[in-house]
Design goal:
Elements lengths: L11 H29 L4 H26 L6 H17 L6 H33 L4 H21 L6 H21 L14 H12 L2 H15 L2 H13 L4 H21 L1 H7 L1 H19 L5 H9 L1 H19 L5 H31 L4 H26 L1
Length: about 400
């Protein structure tokens, strides 16, 4: 692939919005429904937790390694295309087996490769948003909108089609996203000066980041807040079905959560700029403590809607805050590894540990397992307060 001019007639905002939509067509089905698919394959709660946890637990190693690998290309979009094709093949493998070990392997391949695409896209989008003066939340919110569409559509499909369709959809969506990467992602160079640093230099930059204590505190804090979603991601659909809530209504509940996330990203980004990312992390962590504590007591359907509205804070506020905080703390030449490390912690290791624990918690305690993730969010709240104090001292 060679560098060329941006495709005429389409702005970076439009193209990146369409690409985020393409990749979240996959996540919108895999995230809420993979537990249903694995349950249909004969897996119990502990096995589901193990399958989902493996790629997350390994992400602190695979995420930065893949980011350093991606920085070895000339154009940022080239590794993204390769990652999406590989992810599609991994997810397709889920259709070929009922074996626990093979399900672990294929899910690991698909999830590891797909989850690396988003932080690479964030690097492009954050830079273009800054230089071209548009709100990062608009293209990212388009991804969340596609998540809602995929989520609601699958909820309806599952009323008439077997859960096998879940893996078919996710794999096909990855291949579609690979085409979108080739046609929509701007032909942006990884290294603006044109010279690619040696692999040893790229790894050195990664080490420098990990020696920055404030950077490490930021990614750990974001990881705790985001990781507190693990029980919800893995078992909310199963628990809600046990309460007698239908598949389409479960899709609506997930859709409400993502809809408020979209609204937050589209309309409240200026507020984040005024208040700063540290305060937004505090808001996200505090809302998470409240949300997961109440979920532990199986609230009725009418109460689930306002609680799902808290997703705007538990996910969107803390997610946007972490992106901006990591961008602020990392030098430009280490942007990809920095966001990859953030992703590796926030949607990787801490989420993986929590997911691994969620299976046995679900089997033993049912909805009371949410108490553990509320405690996790409480730890994140402590880290967010510490970051806010450090930021205040630096300004004084």
């Amino acid at each position: 692939m060679t560098e060329g001019a941006d495709r005429p007639g389409l702005s970076s905002l439009v193209r990146l919005s369409l690409f985020y939509a393409a990749i979240y067509l996959s996540t919108g089905v895999s995230l809420p429904y993979i537990g249903t698919y694995l349950r249909d394959r004969g897996m119990d709660g502990g096995q589901i937790g193990l399958i989902l946890a493996v790629p997350l637990l390994l992400k602190p190693f695979t995420g930065p390694a893949l980011a350093v690998w991606a920085d070895g290309f000339t154009l940022r979009r080239t590794p993204m295309i390769l990652l999406l094709v590989g992810a599609g093949l991994g997810y397709a493998g889920l259709l070929a087996t009922h074996s626990l070990l093979w399900l672990i392997l294929f899910w690991f391949i698909g999830q590891t490769l797909l989850s690396t695409v988003s932080p690479l896209t964030d690097v492009i989008t954050l830079r273009r948003a800054r230089t071209e003066s548009f709100n990062y939340g608009i293209p990212r919110g388009m991804g969340s909108s596609a998540f809602i569409v995929a989520n609601l559509t699958m909820g309806v499909i599952l009323t008439v089609v077997a859960p096998t369709i879940i893996a078919v959809w996710v794999a096909a969506a990855c291949f579609i996203a690979a085409i979108a990467a080739a046609t929509l992602i701007p032909p942006e160079r990884v290294h603006a000066e044109g010279a690619k640093p040696a692999r040893s230099e790229r790894w050195k930059g990664l080490g420098d980041l990990l020696r920055n204590r404030t950077f490490v505190l930021a990614v750990v804090t974001a990881g705790l807040i985001q990781g507190a979603h693990a029980f919800y991601y893995g078992f909310s659909a199963i628990l809600w079905r046990k309460q007698g809530i239908s598949e389409p209504m479960i899709g609506v509940l997930w859709g409400v959560g993502v809809a408020v996330e979209v609204g937050f990203m589209w309309f409240l980004e200026p507020l984040r700029r005024r208040w700063g990312p540290e305060l937004f992390l505090i808001l996200g962590a505090g809302a998470a403590v409240v949300r997961w504590t109440l979920y532990a007591f199986e609230p009725p359907l009418w109460a689930l809607f306002p609680l799902q509205g808290l997703h705007a804070l538990t996910f969107a506020a803390s997610f946007l805050a972490s992106l901006r905080l990591i961008e602020k703390l990392a030098p430009p030449e280490a942007a990809s590894p920095a966001q990859a490390i953030n992703s590796a912690l926030s949607s990787g290791f801490t989420l993986g540990i929590a997911t691994l624990a969620s299976g046995p918690l679900f089997d033993a305690f049912g909805a009371r397992g949410y108490i553990a993730t509320a405690a996790m969010a409480l730890l994140g709240l402590g880290g967010a307060v510490l970051l806010h104090r450090r930021a205040g001292r630096q300004m004084s």
